[in-house]
Write a structure and sequence with these properties.
homodimer, six-stranded parallel beta sheet, six-stranded mixed beta sheet, 12 helices, elongated, DNA-binding
Chain lengths: 343, 343
Amino acid sequence: MNLKELSKNLGLSQTTVSRALNGYPEVSPATRQRVEAAAKTFNYRPSTRAKGLATGQALAIGHVIPMSSKHEMVNPIFGDFIAGAGETYFRHGYEMILSIVDDGDEKQIYEGLKARRAVDGVIVHGPRMNDPRIGLLNDLGLPFAVHGRASGYGHPYAWLDVNNRSAFERATDFLFDLGHTRIALINGLEEMDFAHRRREGYASSLAAHDIAVDASLMRSGEMTEVYGYECTREMLEKGNAPTAILCSSLISALGVRRAIEEKGLVMGKDVSVVTHDDALSYLQNGGDVPIFTATRSSVRDAGRKLAEMLLASIADPLSPPKQELLEAELMVGSSTGPAPRKD
Amino acid sequence: MNLKELSKNLGLSQTTVSRALNGYPEVSPATRQRVEAAAKTFNYRPSTRAKGLATGQALAIGHVIPMSSKHEMVNPIFGDFIAGAGETYFRHGYEMILSIVDDGDEKQIYEGLKARRAVDGVIVHGPRMNDPRIGLLNDLGLPFAVHGRASGYGHPYAWLDVNNRSAFERATDFLFDLGHTRIALINGLEEMDFAHRRREGYASSLAAHDIAVDASLMRSGEMTEVYGYECTREMLEKGNAPTAILCSSLISALGVRRAIEEKGLVMGKDVSVVTHDDALSYLQNGGDVPIFTATRSSVRDAGRKLAEMLLASIADPLSPPKQELLEAELMVGSSTGPAPRKD
DNA sequence: TCATCTTTCCAAAGCGCTTTGGATTTGACT
DNA sequence: AGTCAAATCCAAAGCGCTTTGGAAAGATGA
């Protein structure tokens, strides 16, 4: 059923039917009701493509997910973020279109999306330090919003980020308060902006407590369970092992715990662990009492909010880009405790 | 830059330019080259919407992800599956449209996608027993392919599935071979088709070994780490605890291991564990030697293949629906060993 | 040289919608 | 009854592409 058929069926012009359906005032209430009823019974919905052509809008937002072909790793937070954003799009009648793209092809993809007028805007995932995508999108004039930030880009742009720096500073402070001084950091890949900021927060706390940064206590890599395990095992085997570990992801925290327990140590007693927790739906940090002490911030919520921000900026293109910094909450669980006393 | 401008620029008609770009034969090689060069320099790409309107194709595939609003759980395999499918779409010039939908709204969403002619076909995720979506999509006449199967639907339809039954039967057999007889099953939600099939495979092996199914050794729920942990803890605390556990997901297997080790037992010695492993990129089953003995099947690969299947069926609408059953491979890791001798 | 194919290109219609600019009807008010 | 504005509705243009049905030009064979 298309507009023409529907209007013929109603004995009205396409104009009137279109206006009735889109809430324009030039239609009598009676007619509008009649039209709406007919639309419902015939299950009429305007063709996305025709509507888009006529209005010049795509009513779609693009999500371009970078994937380094090297490790083929899909970011585990991706699903929950998308779920949050999807909620927002659904409410606003937008569609979400997804491109999973090899690192190298990204430029081409953004240009394609723009040239083909396939989307009204895009969300940028996984920003890196000095990420070239921000500049590219600005040049293209394609509205966008970034999940995270990209240090090193001079001009303002729309983003939403967790305050990674303060979260990790606070977490490190917390460990100091418990008496720990040898605190390790198992972080995400250095080139990722969030990892950079977390390290800064960590280093800042160390500095405030007059403890020098010890390179042997800092790791960075892709945050898998195995990675957490291996880093921890190595650190615990060497002399002068850390008494506390800061970890960038709950998944690798599971590996950290495994390494600790494998060595016959007790987490929260012999070794304390604090992790960041994205509150993923399939990876909850325990039940009532959190297993891990964690800096927590829901990535799904971030998805909802960032989508909202992008849609708002599309609706009002002249407004300056917005930013939003979410504070992670520190949840104390059973993975932390006072530093063991020296023998 | 649009077609009109481009063709004016070249001194050709829109027809000729369109034909040159779309590989029609009625264009001289010289002209074609000239057109292609111009398209490249002006970065011309036909508008998706206009092209779609003209051709009647959407060049897009819909993925409708169900999410029960009750637990708000996003399936963790989703990201990797999408990544695989996305690869295929990219190769074929298709777009992927994602809708994350509350269980109840699904019908409405499919009808909307169809009525608005927004997609050429859809992938059905997470089929349940007697899943009503299959019938609905058949009635709508919207091409589709299912990731998994939906027992109870009479007519043929396109699907791709892992042979869950044989995988779990084989895994159970394997445990019997090691001397285990008290084998527990920690499974996904019973209403999910895959969980049903896995239980069948498990039960079939028990029957073949003249062991009665013991309801106290079977659990089903959402496959989180915590769920694996709690099920295992309960089972190990009761008398007559299982000596082996079959688990439906690597994530909950991590919880299983935690419960085992917390009790001071050794996995692979006191309690053997076999899990299904979807080969998720962010959750690898150890390095060279798998940690868990597992029935393994790459869900990303499934995404690639199923997308290919759907595109083929769209290209050739009259062909009968295809099916593909993937066999999981049994990878022996260090989580299994001979059954402990009775004291 | 002429008729007949090929080759190469084009004008215009059409895809399904929105929207502009008018036309018609209705109603209120002198 | 006559006037004017408000309320309703409509025909047609246009969004950017593909595709149909020719037309013009060039090549071929008699």
